[in-house]
Amino acid sequence: MLEQSPLLTREKVLRDPIHDYIYVQHQVILDLINTKEFQRLRRIKQLGTTSLTFHGAEHSRFTHSVGVYEITRRICDNFQRNYPTKEAGDGLWDDSEKLVALCAALLHDIGHGPYSHTFEHIFKTDHEAITAQILTDPSTEINQVLAGVSTDFPAKVASVIQKKYPNPQVVQLISSQIDADRMDYLLRDSYYTGTNYGTFDLTRILRVMRPYKGGIAFDINGMHAVEDYIVSRFQMYVQVYFHPISRSMEVILSHLLHRAKYLYENNRLGLEDSPKLLIPLFENDFSLDDYLQLDDGVLTTYFTEWRQNTDTILSDLAVRFLDRKPFKSIKFDANTADLLPDLERLIESAGFNPEYYTAENDSYDLPYDAYDPTKDKPRTQIELAQEDGSLVELSSVSDLVASITGKVSGDRRFFFPRELLKSEDDLFVDIYNQFRTYINNDNLIHPKEITQHDN
Amino acid sequence: MLEQSPLLTREKVLRDPIHDYIYVQHQVILDLINTKEFQRLRRIKQLGTTSLTFHGAEHSRFTHSVGVYEITRRICDNFQRNYPTKEAGDGLWDDSEKLVALCAALLHDIGHGPYSHTFEHIFKTDHEAITAQILTDPSTEINQVLAGVSTDFPAKVASVIQKKYPNPQVVQLISSQIDADRMDYLLRDSYYTGTNYGTFDLTRILRVMRPYKGGIAFDINGMHAVEDYIVSRFQMYVQVYFHPISRSMEVILSHLLHRAKYLYENNRLGLEDSPKLLIPLFENDFSLDDYLQLDDGVLTTYFTEWRQNTDTILSDLAVRFLDRKPFKSIKFDANTADLLPDLERLIESAGFNPEYYTAENDSYDLPYDAYDPTKDKPRTQIELAQEDGSLVELSSVSDLVASITGKVSGDRRFFFPRELLKSEDDLFVDIYNQFRTYINNDNLIHPKEITQHDN
Amino acid sequence: MLEQSPLLTREKVLRDPIHDYIYVQHQVILDLINTKEFQRLRRIKQLGTTSLTFHGAEHSRFTHSVGVYEITRRICDNFQRNYPTKEAGDGLWDDSEKLVALCAALLHDIGHGPYSHTFEHIFKTDHEAITAQILTDPSTEINQVLAGVSTDFPAKVASVIQKKYPNPQVVQLISSQIDADRMDYLLRDSYYTGTNYGTFDLTRILRVMRPYKGGIAFDINGMHAVEDYIVSRFQMYVQVYFHPISRSMEVILSHLLHRAKYLYENNRLGLEDSPKLLIPLFENDFSLDDYLQLDDGVLTTYFTEWRQNTDTILSDLAVRFLDRKPFKSIKFDANTADLLPDLERLIESAGFNPEYYTAENDSYDLPYDAYDPTKDKPRTQIELAQEDGSLVELSSVSDLVASITGKVSGDRRFFFPRELLKSEDDLFVDIYNQFRTYINNDNLIHPKEITQHDN
Amino acid sequence: MLEQSPLLTREKVLRDPIHDYIYVQHQVILDLINTKEFQRLRRIKQLGTTSLTFHGAEHSRFTHSVGVYEITRRICDNFQRNYPTKEAGDGLWDDSEKLVALCAALLHDIGHGPYSHTFEHIFKTDHEAITAQILTDPSTEINQVLAGVSTDFPAKVASVIQKKYPNPQVVQLISSQIDADRMDYLLRDSYYTGTNYGTFDLTRILRVMRPYKGGIAFDINGMHAVEDYIVSRFQMYVQVYFHPISRSMEVILSHLLHRAKYLYENNRLGLEDSPKLLIPLFENDFSLDDYLQLDDGVLTTYFTEWRQNTDTILSDLAVRFLDRKPFKSIKFDANTADLLPDLERLIESAGFNPEYYTAENDSYDLPYDAYDPTKDKPRTQIELAQEDGSLVELSSVSDLVASITGKVSGDRRFFFPRELLKSEDDLFVDIYNQFRTYINNDNLIHPKEITQHDN
What predicted TM-score, i.e. pTM, was given to this entire model? Predict the structure, then answer.
């Protein structure tokens, strides 16, 4: 069945710093943008605590979502112009797939909550399940708009996002190792952080993309542009997304929510500080509508109220989060992990409850998408199409990509209050001195390990 | 007296999309950035409702404030390198003024609240007075850091921001027709909106700036760069800052806060919806600390709570604001203002309370800074220094600048619910049809005025 | 008759710094680019002596020509997508005009010689006439490619460039106050000089362009973008194109060619220095093929040979041009023009032949395109289309544009050897001292005029 | 001895698209730029035939040279501000080295001729030796300016460029794996080609550079910025510098000069076509002054004259070069090299002299600078300084860099006239058909090798 949505009499545009303009041509796209569920994305930062490290990166999930839509739109237009299907099964592009692709692109992040990773961890929510629910639950404005196209359209769009849609081209546009989602966030996050690690040649990549039976491939003469994209992505991870300060602020956020939940469950949060909109989450009994009330501002508003809470751990953590007082951290590995209890003991001696004032965090949790077909959940590999149409896999022709293929990346860090690095003479000065013997060149070490060298 | 602050052993940098890096060299600057009052600026958008028109412009007052600091730092460095004073009164740059200039630059917006213009209008607050209070009240962390330099340093910094400081060079760095504040926001707002109207040649302008006895002048060979800056500023006002959609959202915000205040004062807001952090403002009895709890998120959190309020005007306006459902608007002028009551009557007939569903708004309220020495509050004019040292005023040598000098700019608009433009057949269809006869080419007209033309 | 050219099986692209890619879709466009006449444009700088002031601006007429083509292509695509004609005379876009528009855009500068303005002045050539000749003379590769479309196609393309083509939309795409030619050179010259005065919002302008019966108009909501373009153009003229150093180098070039021609005509150029490829020009008896042999390198090669010429004026001017030793200059006007003979006399006393070592040059010769319908050759005015389709003229709604409408811009300068400003004590020191009394603040003055002022 | 040059009373600036401004502060730098030898660099393209592939890249060696100077200046300023030497041998920066470093940076390419690589190959010139000669020969303006600093200053500057200067910091600023030369050309060539492969974070790299006893190191927290630079450099080589079309045009240029030399030596070049300025090179008896007369325009002027030469090989190759008619090419390797004689035989049968119409060219000749200390000429490795001052080598901590370390990169190609790929039916159609059986997917293959596959 061919889904259609009326075209606007004249296309509308949204000004965008990354793509110059976002072109909206279908009434349904405009209507989706105007739903309350989509507008809510304006109040959720794309990068969570990263803006506390890179102050420019305060952009919201709204901007990213319209960007993913726009890249998808450009790809579909290119496919239709250059690779239109002539007969079923010829592996070329069927333009009746465009609308489902555009809607899936626009809505792929609709289920995200504030500070997603941390929030999900504490409250056991799942943004992917919620995305599907928002699309298919008749109570949402999103669902009502989608259902206006056809009764099974909401489920279809959801199935693209869930990678269950039968046409692999549509699925790979939205979810693959080089998809519209990743392309937009690399460029956007680069732009807003003011770094340039994430830049790559979008125009050239869009130009060399082409549909084939199994999904989407890239002309081999665009190999280096794809390679450059992979390297840029790697660089953004290690330089921006894995930044220790942002992770430190996430640690504080996590401990803060954890403490609040604990106090609530033990009736110690205080009536004054009743966080109305969070209570359904604390109760672990929340509706979709409850969930959709939440945004970054709701959390920080309650944190502001908690600054004066009588529980000193809660109020102290709220202050650390709102006033940006990150924990410090050091790297550790299998060889030094056994020293962590020593450190926790020292930290406790200095007056900090280790449960709320220390953390281990590895950036492997934010998985790096290196390609590896041998994994349990093998990723769709990136295929390059040669002149004669045959395909070769990217890492087989690129040394650069091969070097980072299948390898996890990132580091493991131990977080602790910066007070431990104080040098002032106070009650705990001996503890501080002892603590510092465990640290060298940003690494946890066995205290005896420090070696001499001359510069 | 020469204020000094220890230099950091190594300068720190903040990554910034506009200036690449912000260089922090003094301990006091680092300490000011780390205060709770300054960190709060991260939670207040620089452009308020403008991000609802230009979705990329979600940057905060924090990013702008460090940008103004950075431009000021570069100017001071240039002055010290090229125009150091040799003897008192020679009109050259005295580098002992640097620290007060840098602190004033960093802190010039510290007193802003959320959605400042609207907020101040409803709650009769004054961000300039609050700025001075934050600097000079011993309860603030800002004051404590400044007082560490010298006991009268907080007052000195405040006097720069209040334009009362004796050295006009320092004052004009922060407040004049071409100052570090304006230069940063034009570039920054351009970058984040994704328009390029606000770009100008910052490097060249910094290069041609020079101190003189009366303040700051510009080498005449940089005249066209200054001209370009003035034109860019004009363009940003008419294209971005005065955008009807943003003003429409401000109108809704204003009506919403106004309604909430009214309900509160009449005990009709509902216990459930007690907006704890706003109550001191509703009571018109708030401390500096109360004020400093507020940010954009606090407002939108209460708006979220009000979505379900039993007062339908409050809940409807909250929905319109959160879900971005702007009013429509048309231009009017002295010749058509007499028609506004007609329109209000029609709007009321269609079921909308005109007090909360219409507004007149002119963008002259957001004054355009054209130069005019004949005004009551004459602005410091822009002086160009010729080869032999004599000064000429900018508009006397630039036709472009002369063309916009002393003229107000902007338009007057009447705002109304978009429902009035509905074409569907419903109860009010006659009202809608009548309403539309008052509108032509975005202007309010006398209904008979429409003339024929062929294209 | 509908001209057609086969489409390439797959479009080809040229990488371009301004437009990212130039998209070539027709075989005839590819063939035109590959002609010898078009490739020759690679060896002629777009901005002549401007690269001696702005060293980055070394780009050729080739890059500009493909850029004009690309902008035209985008406009045609937009017109076809949004404003396709439905019946003859409806004022909308007839896509069968596309090919002639594209060819005219690509070839509009094909007749330019090296350092056009100066060259034409000395040798009485006319690049517009030569352009027409290149298109219509069967000896050229350009003509052969065009004639492959249809026998009258070469003449048609020529008539577009000559503004005689019946469809005003096609003519205005290439030649009007806001056409593809101007739009490309402003952006390109800005980029290569490294200034940003010429930037404007190309995407937005392309978006608001629309065909109408009388040519091309712009949606009124894009008024400020058009205004910004006009101001940018003005800025580029006064800041870049009229730069005194570039004009000074043109003066030297002109005197150098003039001297060579004079020596040639008087048999004093020397056999050794016979400038083979220039002789037909010196003889004023040259074929189209002779003309097409010339490029920037041919001129500088002969200048290099002339460095050693026995005529000291010729060799000195060659050295000044090749080694970039510009004359100095001052502004003068009607009030001071009577002093120029005094200066020339002083210059002659210092040992310089005024015919070859001085010049008057006004930048009005490089006309600024302000709009003025009252002129002898009225320009096509810029029309803005209102919501209801009626048109208003740009300067009637833009104060900024009105301020520069109909006014000439630029200055008149007198050029002289920089030696006259020497301060060293040599034979001519009295002359130098006397000379300097005529100069103040970059202006020619009556020696008594200097007034005192304090700074 | 401490070399000094008077500072200009006010620094001069050159506008530059890459660095915004080039700041000239010393009289000697200004004087060097104004020499005839330096101005000649304006007439030699930085990238030779690359502009025939990437049309935007028409920039000259002049722009690059001032860019290298500017980067060096910034590094020196940073070193002086942050790492000034306190006592001899402390491994910190001695600012009396600044002037020699700046001059070496500015002049490092002064000896280049037109289309250097090809030119040197044909005429056995050596631009490095000529650079040294220009610096030290009293006949040059460059030498005279340098000698004005001190008598041994010219030799000192030359020794920096020749890597013989005792202070390794100064040498490494100009010549190492990450030096001012490479940093400027990557950014500049990226900008002018309009690709973005060569971009990297210059500001950050300059920030993390620091002097140490053995030369220049980088703070370890800047590791990823250095890594990004290395990858960018790799990308520029494979995507831009090794482009087959540019190499094809070099092949034609080489054959053309070779043919001209051959004809000259056999008195067959023709009196009419006597290339006056090239004759000393043909005679292999040229002075420094002869060499310095040459530039790109001199070569193309003679090529233009040769278009009509009676030798058909010479005239045909001149046409192919001037009108940009590149040879085609295919990759080959050790397994297929034995087939090349077959191809040459076919090409000869089709009427082309293989000596002038075919070539083998591998891009290994344009060496890729991967780091490898085991090589005969070991490169200075890139050292990263850890927090405690100890150094680690880059590839030991970067997987990405390790993956391209010590590996040659590029390909081997066989070039032939595009006529061989004609499909038209003419005399040689059988030859063409046979020729094509050797080609598959841009590779030379054994004709039987083609395998079937379906897409």
Answer: 0.91
